[in-house]
């Protein structure tokens, strides 16, 4: 049997030398033969309506990876997944069943705007130029499986007019009407290039999966009326900066070196506190470097602070979940920034260099022989790094723990302050740390390290004479006869062992002191043992008002301190608060009484005016 091949005589798509393709619309469609029926392959589950990337991942985790499995799944099984309720589960299963039913009816998807019709093939001898039908049918199948949205393609690839298109039919092969067979040769040579070009056109259009993915992408939550405008936020930031500068703080700008460190916060302010009026009375008090990272709250409502969380009182009760959780995200940002600042300073990074260039020119970091950090110092004085994160708000801030002037989130050492009270807060923070450093019994790390080194030196000096005698006896033992100095050398060996043990003990004690210094250096100030007692608290109380003293005791000692001086201060503040409330109530009642009195007088005045008018009319009537 001689081999026969099919030659298309005309094709409805033009193939140029650059392998450009122009799709065309043909009106009539006949039922496709078994030769063109596409193979049934498992489809991605994302083709089902309502299944986006997130839902697809949930279904894959549940073991559902195909449309058929989704169609036969139970609603209860899908409802067990996070984020999928029972109504949505029923809808997904219904969509999957509809998809399978439509697939059975259609055989393969055909775009309603683009339909193809071709004629049966013509059998020709083998000697003429031909096109392999198998290759062309595969190309057709691939192009039919991935339907092209011709409306999008036509923007860049214009189509022919309807009168220029000849209809053809596909039956058992491909027939193309073309009078000149030689023109088919470029088509054969460029068939693969044409396929690639069609694929590139298809990639320019959006598939059903991509469209579904775009629909399922959650938009960035909008705070709507809960947030102030950008102009108001800018004005609020300018007010904060002005108050910081007035209080003597230096604003750290977000330069290229520092941008990564402080990019998530709004303002970073620093201040060096070194000249205290009572510094000479303290035991080696340190200079203070106060660092305040600030996050400005852009919300219109009020913030409510407790010991373990910060909540937002929304103006609209149906506000987005993201808006209500925004204050706690500020806490996370400030915690991360505080840790990054500590790490940068301990590693002598960009912020350490910034301090030496702008704040103080003598900031150094003392280390051990093994390069372990001990403490910062400015010249001969230790320098204490204090980081106080702050959240500022333009509205009132509530505090649920105690009646205090400044709300304090104790778990993260964050103060939440209204902008108009920021100057008073900065004064309080500065006074607080100055009093804690000057009035407590604890020594500075520098002094503690110096004392430990002096003790070690004194102990080693006591051992040195004995060690010298040991070496002399050892030399005699080496160069003289054992019988002459045997007893002395035995005593020398025992003494040397004793001195060695004592030296090891002294070194161990020194190492323990160094470990304490390293531990305190790595511990944030608000978590350290401040060595507060009744005497130091009385001295601190002299430098603060009663309400600020209660604020300090809550921050350093918690709610129940157990100190008599603190209990006395709290009792006094409670009495003052009751007196203020009573006075305020009395003032309000007086104002209300005055208003009622004015109203009564105005009513009496109106009544007298009416009477006078009536009398005037009556008298004029009598005269007439």
Write the layout of secondary structure elements.
Layout: E1 5-6, H1 53-61, H2 67-71, H3 75-79, H4 86-106, E2 123-124, H5 133-145, H6 150-153, H7 185-189, H8 191-204, H9 208-216, H10 230-246, E3 250-251, H11 259-262, E4 267-273, E5 287-296, E6 302-305, E7 310-313, H12 321-324, H13 326-346, H14 350-359, E8 363-367, E9 373-378, E10 381-387, E11 390-393, E12 397-399, E13 407-409, E14 414-418, H15 422-439, H16 445-479, H17 482-522, H18 534-542, H19 546-557, H20 564-623
Helix pairs in contact: 5-8, 15-18, 16-17, 19-20
Question: What this model shows, in words?
Answer:
With about 625 residues, the chain is α/β, with parallel strands linked by helices. The chain has 3 domains: about 5-215, no CATH class; about 225-440, no CATH class; about 445-505, no CATH class. Helix content is about 50%, strand content about 10%. It contains 20 helices and 14 strands. It has helices at about 55-60, 65-70, 75-80, 85-105, 135-145, 150-155, 185-190, 190-205, 210-215, 230-245, 260, 320-325, 325-345, 350-360, 420-440, 445-480, 480-520, 535-540, 545-555, 565-624, and strands spanning about 5, 125, 250, 265-275, 285-295, 300-305, 310-315, 365, 375-380, 380-385, 390-395, 395-400, 405-410, 415-420. Strands 3, 4, 5, 8, 9, 10, 11, 13 and 14 form a 9-stranded mixed β-sheet that branches. It has a 3-stranded mixed β-sheet with strand order 7-6-12, covered by helices on one side. It has a two-stranded antiparallel sheet with strand order 1-2. The model is unreliable at about 1-40, about 110-205, about 210-220 and about 275-285 (pLDDT under 50).
